[in-house]
Design brief:
Blueprint (H helix, E strand, L loop, with lengths): L1 H21 L2 H22 L4 H20 L4 H13 L4 H20 L4 H13 L7 H23 L3 H7 L4
C-alpha cells in the first residue's frame, strides 16, 4: 500500500505544483482558513476527552477495522481488543499539535510555490515522510502503539476461525 501511495503521489506531484502555482494569494488564504477551521473543530471536539473516552473511540475503530477484515469477532478476540486498547498510549493531544505543525509547514510550502525545485522537495517531504514533523513525544507514543498493535494483531489472526480466514480471503 505504501509503495502504491508513493507512486501515486509521484505521479500527481507535477500537477500539484502546477495547481499551487496558479493559486492566488487570496485562494491560498481561503484554503488555509478552511484547513485551520477544520483543525480547530477537531481540537475542540477532543479537547475535553478523557483517557477513558479516547480508549472507547480506539476500541470502536479497532473493532470496526477488524470486523471489516474478518467479520464478527469472537468473545476471545474481543478480549484481545480490550487488552490492546488498554495498553495503548492516548495520542489525541499529540495529533492536534502535529496537525498544527503541518498547517504551519503547508503555509511555508505555499510561499515556495513559484520555485518548482523547492516546492516539489518540500511537498515530497510532507507527503512521503510526515513523521519527520512528529514531536519526540508523538514519535515515541506512535512507535509504542505500533508495536502494541503488531503484537495484538498477530494474536487476533492466531485466534481467527476458518470462517474468518475465508471472509478475509473474500470467500464468505
Amino acid at each position: 500500500m505504501q509503495q502504491h501511495y508513493q507512486r501515486l503521489v509521484m505521479h500527481l506531484l507535477p500537477d500539484a505544483y502546477l495547481l499551487a502555482n496558479t493559486l492566488s494569494d487570496a485562494q491560498i488564504e481561503q484554503f488555509m482558513q478552511g484547513l485551520t477551521e477544520r483543525q480547530q473543530e477537531f481540537a475542540e471536539k477532543y479537547r475535553d476527552t478523557t483517557q477513558s473516552q479516547a480508549r472507547v473511540r480506539y476500541r470502536e475503530r479497532i473493532t470496526d477495522n477488524l470486523e471489516e477484515w474478518f467479520g464478527s469477532l469472537s468473545a476471545q478476540q474481543e478480549d484481545v481488543v480490550s487488552q490492546w486498547v488498554n495498553e495503548m498510549k492516548v495520542t489525541t493531544a499529540d495529533w492536534v499539535a502535529f496537525h498544527s505543525r503541518l498547517r504551519r509547514e503547508l503555509t511555508h510550502l505555499f510561499t515556495l510555490r513559484h520555485n518548482e525545485a523547492l516546492f516539489s522537495a518540500q511537498l515530497q517531504a510532507l507527503l512521503f515522510a510526515p513523521e519527520q514533523f512528529y514531536s519526540p513525544v508523538l514519535r515515541a507514543k506512535f512507535q509504542y502503539n505500533q508495536a502494541i498493535s503488531d503484537k495484538y494483531l498477530v494474536e487476533i489472526v492466531r485466534l481467527a476461525s476458518d470462517k474468518q480466514i475465508a471472509y478475509f480471503r473474500g470467500g464468505d
